């Protein structure tokens, strides 16, 4: 299912924020971008860093990030196939945003809500 994108960003004061968040929405996109800040990674290297993601979900998230211009995907003609992912200039431009999110998360992780299973206990 494709996402609805803004054609114009002048609809309201928060509209640009909403539009920006649409690019990195998804459970894994922000984390994928964070790990790619370290450099180029292969599919299984990304997967090892995200143990909770399924291969299908990771593929979908990588495809969306590539379609939005945040990732470059390089396929090598060899057997087995080798595919590398790296940030484009547009993806690299998110570095201060991702760093700020990480810093905020580090400072506030102790205040995260408890999962429902723990709350019932």
UniProtKB/TrEMBL annotation:
The keyword Transcription is assigned to this record: yes
One Pfam family linked to the record: HxlR
Cited InterPro entries: HTH_HxlR, WH-like_DNA-bd_sf, WH_DNA-bd_sf
Gene Ontology molecular functions: DNA binding
Keywords: DNA-binding, Transcription, Transcription regulation
Domain (HTH hxlR-type) ranges: 15-113
Protein name: Transcriptional regulator
Organism name: Hansschlegelia plantiphila
């Amino acid at each position: 299912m494709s996402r609805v994108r803004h054609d114009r960003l002048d609809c309201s004061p928060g509209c640009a924020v909403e539009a920006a968040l649409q690019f990195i929405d998804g459970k894994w996109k922000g984390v994928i971008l964070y790990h790619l800040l370290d450099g180029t990674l292969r599919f299984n290297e990304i997967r090892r860093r995200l143990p909770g993601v399924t291969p299908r979900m990771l593929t979908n998230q990588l495809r969306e990030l590539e379609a939005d211009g945040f990732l470059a995907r390089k396929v090598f003609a060899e057997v087995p196939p080798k595919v590398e992912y790296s940030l484009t200039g547009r993806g690299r431009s998110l570095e201060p945003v991702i760093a700020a999110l990480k810093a905020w998360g580090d400072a506030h992780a102790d205040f995260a809500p408890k999962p429902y299973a723990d709350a019932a206990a």
